[in-house]
Every structure is written in C-alpha cells, then in structure tokens.
Specification:
Elements: H1 2-33, H2 35-53, H3 61-76, H4 80-93, H5 102-117, H6 121-138, H7 144-162, H8 176-192, H9 199-218, H10 222-238
Helix pairs in contact: 2-3, 3-4, 4-5, 5-6, 6-7, 7-8, 7-9, 8-9, 9-10
C-alpha cells in the first residue's frame, strides 16, 4: 500500500512538473523571440554598461562601444534625438587614426540614417558626403563601399523629394521636387557602376536598383522603371529575399 502511494505521488509529481517545464520552455522561447522584450533587455544592459563606461577615459574603446550600443538601442526605440546626441558624442570622442577606422565610419553612417529618419535631410547629406570623402581617401577607386555611399546620397535625395508637394510627373517642371529627384537619379546611376554580378554585391545592387526604379517612376519614366524593377526582383529572387518592390 505504501509503495502504491509513493508511486502515485511520483507519477503525480511528474504529470504536474512536465507541463510546467513545457510551459516554462514556451515562455522562455517567447521571450527570446519577442523583439520588444529583447530590446528592453538590451536597453537595460546597455544603460548599465554606459554608466560604467563613462567612468573610463575619453577615447577608451569600451567607452566608445558603450556609447554606440546605447545609441543603437535609442534609435530602435525611435528616440531619435537621444540617438543623434549619442552618435554625435561617439564621433566627437573618436580618436583620429592614420588607418581606416571601420567603427568611426559605422557611427557616421548611423548618424546620417538617424538624421534621415528625423527628416533632417541637409544634415544627413552632409554626413553622407563626409563618409564618401573618407572612403575615397582610404579605399581603391572601384571599391563597392564608395558605391554604397553614392547610393545613400541618392536615397537621401529621393526621400527628401518625396517630402515635397507632388506635381504632374509628366510635366518635366524644374521645380524643387523634380530637381531633387534628378539629383537622386544621378547618384544612383553612379552607384550602380560599382556593383557587378558577384553575390556579395547583389544586395547593394538591388537596393540601388529598387530606389532608382521609384525615382524613374516618379519622374514619369515608366518603361525605364520597369526594367530596373525586373532587375531588382531577379536579384532578390536569387537571394530569396522577402522584401521586394510591389
């Protein structure tokens, strides 16, 4: 009798524990896969790291990384002013280097993107021009990173143009919007000369083609836009990308 009671108790404990373990694992998986919870956890980690890192001397690599990490969290939280201030601080504190500094360039690109998200197009353009000059100083004339910088400038001009009042795209009026569109097309034309058919360049080429397609469409050049759309979709299909031109 005692043995039966013990066995029943063990069985009951297992039956209760097994679903509890399963639910715990499901909850843990949910937390892992939930971007908002991950971001909150990342925010807490970055804030603690930042408070510790600011005690370090200016120019220290850990201090630099902590500033950049928190800036990225603030950007993802759509706290653009905080992100802008942190990226500017990171750039101010960056020690000049005689060699190519990828961390410096990364912060410059992110600051420009934050400016663009804030619709501060002139400020974004200024930083994108600085990244272009920096890459041209250190890299070969055919390096695809120069093409990326030109593409960024084109995209920035296009988004700025889209913020202006629309006019009839067939009228060819040289208004401000059309002028910005033409500048966007010029930079995107230049950028595409840097991207060949090699796999590592396909994403950059697809981005430039997709944006030039939109520029051409808004300029009333529908047939040319269709060609760019077809080329961009072909590249996206090859890489099985889900985000494509409509």
């Amino acid at each position: 009798m005692i043995i039966r009671i013990v066995l029943l108790a063990l069985f009951f404990a297992y039956v209760v524990r097994a679903p509890m373990d399963f639910r715990t694992k499901v909850l843990e998986a949910s937390i892992r896969d939930n971007p908002e919870l991950r971001l909150l956890r990342r925010q807490s980690d970055c804030e603690r790291g930042f408070l510790e890192a600011v005690k370090l001397p200016v120019g220290d690599k850990l201090r630099q990384q902590a500033i950049s990490d928190l800036a990225l969290v603030r950007w993802r939280q759509l706290k653009f002013q905080d992100a802008e201030n942190l990226y500017r601080l990171a750039l101010i504190e960056n020690k000049p280097s005689k060699d190519y500094d990828q961390a410096l360039l990364s912060n410059m690109l992110k600051l420009a993107a934050v400016y663009r998200d804030e619709s501060k197009f002139a400020e974004a353009r200024s930083v994108y021009l600085a990244t272009l000059a920096y890459d041209q100083k250190f890299l070969s004339k055919s390096d695809t990173r120069i093409g990326r910088d030109l593409s960024n400038l084109g995209i920035n001009y296009y988004i700025e143009a889209c913020s202006k009042d629309r006019v009839d795209p067939a009228s060819k009026m040289k208004d401000e919007r059309t002028s910005l569109m033409l500048k966007a097309k010029n930079y995107l034309d230049q950028s595409l000369k840097f991207f060949g058919d090699t796999p590592e360049n396909q994403q950059l080429a697809s981005i430039a083609l997709s944006n030039r397609c939109l520029v051409l469409r808004d300029l009333g050049e529908g047939e040319a836009a269709k060609i760019d759309k077809s080329r961009a979709n072909r590249l996206d299909n090859a890489e099985q990308r889900l985000c494509k031109l409509p």
